[in-house]
Amino acid sequence: MDALVEPRPPAAPAPLAAPTHLAKPDGGRFGVAMLLALVLEVTAVLGLSVLRDTAPPAPPAAAQPLKIHAVAPPAPPPPSR
After folding, report:
1. How many other C-beta atoms lie within 10 A of the C-beta of residue 66?
2. What digits encode the pLDDT tens for the residues 48-66?
């Protein structure tokens, strides 16, 4: 008699229940989008900061050679009469 009974397929696992404290009227998509935007913004700011800190220093603008002029001694006082 057991040979005539067809075996049932295994039951599908029960779906995971969403946490109620995260439930949003829009299904939580807005919160996820805001979190993703915040992560991307922080990553971009930190990335730019790292790039700026590791960039090679800019070459000095057309540096002129230092010219040292000799200082003339003071002129002698005019002869007194």
Report:
1. 5
2. 777 667 767 777 766 667 7
